[in-house]
Design a protein that fits this description.
It contains 12 helices and 8 strands.
Length: about 300
Amino acid sequence: MSGESWSDRLFGGFRKTSEKLTENLAGIVSKTRLDEAQLDEIEDALILSDLGPRAAARIRERLAGERFERGADEAAIKQAVADEIAAILRPVAKPIDIVAFPRPQVILVIGVNGSGKTTTIAKLAHLFQELDYAVMLAAGDTFRAAAIGQLGVWAERLGVPIVKGPEGGDPSAVVFDAVKEATAKGIDALIVDTAGRLQNKRELMDELAKIRRVLGRLNPEAPHDVVLVLDATNGQNALQQIEVFKEVANVTGLIMTKLDGTARGGVLVAAAEQYGLPIHAIGVGEKIDDLRPFDPDLVARVIAGIA
């Protein structure tokens, strides 16, 4: 694995999506324009590849208006699909910039349990360390001892400070202590883990509102980012999570994880087209450096199956 380049890993991660698309485009040959039946077929293929009806309709429209001077073969269609996917993804490809003044920049990380939230926090911390930022973690998911423990292990591995409270304790108290300590230590980025219970939306809403109030007392600008971690293997369910968390938590950006070949990576495009929220980074594996800001043009080519 380690010998693989990032683009090789992306090709692996989006393999299912691009294979499904390639399968459906195989054998399509036309003169300078595609006919309605061919356009229908391609639109269906895009929807089956988890790109969602809105993005599929937009790509279909692009193809319908395209004059293929050398004839519409598989390669030409793939290129046109890649161009339109890139146009959808470019506006949302925005890494998190550490710009808060005064420091620290407070980043709340939310997501359902099992989405890879805690591991993503560690990978994000590592990304910031590589950019020479001082990082601190806060274990605000106080309802799961496992989450506190796991974050502690990562903090140790990364050599970053962590602020924890007792299991079942008040998350906003942990966040309060963390901001004070981060301010005193001159920390650039404070990454806060939060509870991932969606069963009781009201409870989660109240908890996040309380965290916001506490942060507001210390710094009216905080939290600077509210990042939702999504598991790409969930396909269309990931979109429903955006819907719910937008309402519950005022999400400001997304991180898409588990793009590992079993995933339904087209959902990245569906999320971009439907919500237009910044996508800060994507993760293609378990290793600490498997989370990166994404290159929309490369991802578009990968999804379209252009090597």
